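input
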Amino acid sequence: MTAKSKYGLALIAVIVAAGIAGFVVWQKSAAPVKQVPAATVSPPSAPSATPPADCLLPGPAPVPPDGGSATDADMKLGHDTIQNFVLSLEAYQACRNAQIDHAGANVSEKQKQAWIDDGNAAIDQANALASAFSVQLKIFKARNPGH
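output
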């Protein structure tokens, strides 16, 4: 991670953790569910000695379930899908940061700034998605007292 990025991964981790914490509390009060691994996306690896050729932006973004009509299973699937997508966006930002860290002298400052902006836009998207899920989770909980 470089100091060049506008947002740190810690910020998104806090936002997602807050939404996940609320989901976990809701989950514990629901009927027992078989334990599923929290994420199937591998965390970004340490920067390599060679820069990545290109970074692939994940897409399209998943849509949070409608808390007004979603079932328990819908909310769980929505949570897991969004969490995996957020991890992919974080990996994208890490890839852009690695490109900057390994950029040769022939890479312009304008190009580096574009990579920073791309990584920051991905984190903005992750924040918006996590917030949208959190809103729907609150609606779901209001509709299902005790969850």
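quick obs: Residues 1-30+78-147 form one domain.
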